[in-house]
Amino acid sequence: DGKVSEGGLNVTLTIRLLMHGKVKHFLLPKGETVKKMREESGARINISEGTCPERIVTITGPTDAIFKAFSMIALKFEEDINASMTNSTVTSKPPVTLRLVVPASQCGSLIGKGGSKIKEIRESTGAQVQVAGDMLPNSTERAVTISGTPDAIIQCVKQICVVMLESPPKGATIPYRPKPASAPIIFAGGQAFTIQGQYAIPHPDLTKLHQLAMQHPPFTPLGQTTPGFPGLDATTPTSSHELTIPNDLIGCIIGRQGSKINEIRQMSGAQIKIANATEGSAERQVTITGSPANISLAQYLINAR
Known about the structure:
Layout: E1 4-5, E2 8-9, E3 12-20, H1 22-27, H2 32-41, E4 44-47, E5 54-62, H3 63-86, E6 96-103, H4 104-111, H5 116-125, E7 128-131, E8 141-148, H6 150-166, E9 185-188, E10 191-196, E11 199-202, H7 204-214, E12 239-246, H8 247-254, H9 259-268, E13 271-274, E14 283-290, H10 292-304
Antiparallel strand pairs: 1-2, 3-5, 3-6, 4-5, 6-8, 7-8, 9-10, 10-11, 12-14, 13-14
Helix pairs in contact: 2-3, 3-6, 5-6, 7-10, 9-10
Protein name: PCBP3 protein
Domain K Homology: 11-78, 94-165, 237-305
InterPro entries: KH_dom, KH_dom_type_1, KH_dom_type_1_sf
């Protein structure tokens, strides 16, 4: 019904948790722990597949079931911390830390005007809450890190759920999918591969994007043809598109040492030029050149960043 009750909000909700490494010894042994959590909480709990160190744990159900599942997860982490301290010389006990994955469009409501909401959550629950400034790679989601005692964490999750229900995501959300640690990408024979060790592993998601970029519908050329960038025939009609990006956002488009903009160039097959900052201007000019499919894919990837 959406009303706040003693146990929470009696509506169905999905919360995504990002776990690094810990998931192996915590949720996976013979599936016993996660099976018990599902049965006792009544929530659906799914763990993303894959060989990368990060996994997404998706918890869905009525909010009371979600709170119960989080309570069990926080207590399990607390147990692990206590066990690790038994033979350790460390005297101060580290807090339980969980990372939620939240659509960026909801993070503004979570932070509140001038940081008022996040301050209120910190003060009323005793938990530490941090919202990441950047979106997670290739997604429109941000990591929200919460840490404290199990009780502080469960109170914090309750308040975050209230905010998420009151302020649903705006527009489409591109969910974060963990990828193996920074594997280089190559395109060959119309397919995308990631390099892992000595092997090239086919990458279907990137192959689809690459093939989309390489399709050239018969649009009227709007500009000069520009030969010389990968995957495009010199005779293919190309056009240019310009957009402006605020100076304070240009860093997340370029990435460290140009890593993100190079990734966007490689995935879209488009040429992308970023003009130098001009004095007195709060914006930078970005010129995208390529086929209409290249340009639309490059725009999509830039907007996602």
